[in-house]
Specification:
It is built from nine helices and 15 strands. The protein is an alpha/beta fold and 336 residues long. The chain has two domains: 114 residues, NAD(P)-binding Rossmann-like Domain (Rossmann fold); 178 residues, Dihydrodipicolinate Reductase, domain 2, CATH 3.30.360. Helix 4 packs parallel to helix 5 and helix 7 crosses helix 9. The longest helix has 19 residues.
Length: 336
């Protein structure tokens, strides 16, 4: 295969970004853009004259000239569209989150394996220079033992009508956690509240628990006057702050830690604190979405497993589904 013919389904909020990056990618041709809205398709044609568009999504999925389908539609549509595409022999890229249930994700994975097709999720942050730098710091031991992960993703945002704030905002950071921490969690606890009284939580807190002395925490809100996109990655030697709202200095490494000692002659624990320099590393350039598109295309052409594979998608949905059960049971621990 010298070139991948791609169809992108959905030209709403995220679709235009996907079309732009896949159109610019080597070894890829955006064959068709599909959407149920003629107005959106007209906008796509204005941006890309000569682009083939269609409101008949089934016809696009079954078009034999198309090799892969990129699905950028609401999460409740992902399963049906991806299932049709996989059964039609297409490679599939799904917008995050992968599906609305674990059972749906597992069925799609089984289909992808059976048909020998790439099934990938658009966890864009796994391709950002910031997250890749943090991954390198952990793997080379620069921050010591990875101890905790704390994420805040809040803003005065668009309240969704079909999913709560965790399903909307947390997939980015849960996928980053899955990328950074090689072991799988054992349980979750989550609490949340719906101030609009429709059963859809607009503020939620999620704790992810592990077998060893590591934990992760997520704070998500559509009801904050401030927009914050911040992550703390703690090691026992150094700590990393990732502030995605910073235009340039997104990563800061703090040479700060504490150590614990228990003198033999005393029955109390002594904690020593060390505060050192702050280091701001230089990060590589490039758009993360372009890296994601390239990874999908290379996976199709070579068979190599992509970074944001279906494993990442499934692990994220498992945490989200368990968190939803926990919220509805007032924070009860839900085993994974």
């Amino acid at each position: 295969m010298s070139q991948v013919n791609c169809a992108i389904i959905g030209f709403g909020y995220w679709g235009p970004n996907l079309v732009r990056n896949f159109a610019a990618a080597a070894d890829c041709h955006v064959h068709t853009v599909a959407d149920l809205s003629p107005e959106r398709l007209a906008a796509a044609t204005r941006l890309y004259p000569g682009l083939h568009t269609s409101t008949d999504i089934d016809a696009v999925i079954h078009d034999t000239a198309i090799d892969c389908v990129v699905i950028a539609t609401p999460v409740f549509t992902h399963f049906d569209l991806a299932k049709k595409a996989l059964n039609a022999g297409k490679h599939v890229l799904l917008e995050k989150p992968m599906t609305d249930t674990v059972a749906h994700a597992e069925e799609l994975i089984e289909l992808a394996i059976r048909h020998g097709k790439t099934l990938m999720v658009d966890h864009t942050f796994l391709y950002t220079p910031s997250v890749r730098k943090i991954k390198a710091l952990i793997e080379e031991g620069s921050i010591g033992k990875f101890k905790y992960f704390d994420s805040t993703r809040i803003n005065l945002g668009l309240i969704q009508q079909d999913v709560n704030v965790l399903w909307d905002l947390a997939p980015h950071d849960i996928s980053i956690l899955d990328f950074l921490e090689p072991t799988l969690p054992i349980s979750v606890n989550a609490t949340g509240v719906s101030h609009i009284h429709n059963g859809i939580e607009n503020i939620a807190y999620l704790s992810v628990n592990y077998q060893h002395d590591f934990m992760a925490h997520f704070n998500c809100s559509w009801s904050s006057p401030l927009k914050i996109r911040m992550m703390l990655v703690g090691g026992d030697h150094k700590m990393v702050v990732f502030n995605d709202m910073e235009p340039t200095e997104k990563i800061k490494i703090y040479d700060t830690a504490h150590s614990v000692r228990t003198p033999e002659e005393k029955q109390r624990i002594l904690v020593d604190y060390r505060v050192g320099d702050v280091y701001i590393p230089k990060l590589e350039g490039g758009e993360a979405l372009a890296g994601m598109a390239k990874d999908f295309i290379q996976s199709i052409m070579t068979g190599k497993e992509p970074v944001a594979s279906y494993r990442s998608g499934l692990n994220t949905v498992k945490i989200l589904e368990a968190a939803q059960h926990s919220i509805k049971q007032q924070g009860k621990e839900i085993k994974l």
